[in-house]
Amino acid sequence: MKNNFITLLLIGAFCISCNSAGNNAKPAEESAPVASEVKADSVTVYEHDYIVKVGDVAPDFTLELIDGTKFTLSENRGKVVMLQFTAGWCGICRKEMPFIESDIWQRHKDNSNFVLLGIDREETKDEILPFLEKVGTTYPIAMDTNADVFASYALRNSGITRNVLIDRDGKIVMLTRKFEDAEFKALVEKIDSMLKQ
User: Fold this and answer.
1) How far apart are the C-alpha atoms of 97 and 132, rounded to whole Å?
2) What does pTM read for this prediction?
3) Domain range annotation of the chain
């Protein structure tokens, strides 16, 4: 019995030394990369299917608003700009937009250093107007009929709602996706602090 016990101890010690000497691999949770970006068709895709990231200069665009005027992003340098990608068929957008209206637009609409633009994806003016009346928003809405502007910020077929916050130098400072309380609160606070500077 004593010999069997000693034999088992020797075998165990041998196995441990073999494992540590010949295997330098980290445990799965340490060696698995936590990727925040991947390559897809030579485009870098970041978290939440964005193809832009914080620190990038926001891609420029010109769109027509539902009132017939034109909006060009680069013409708003020197201002804090928030872009909200939305659509009438997006349930989460319908939940978020009244909060954007009350917590952001109504608080800052008279501030000449702030711009809020909703960008409606792949809908006509006739489709957008009833949607806006239903959700009760009054901030400016532009028509991204072919989703080309959306596709310069995120993968074309990825979801909305998403918000892009841009500083006075035209650089992206925050990207949100979906409508989560903590993230939305952080967005509101970020806008407030940027407008105080």
Assistant:
1) 9
2) 0.79
3) 46-196
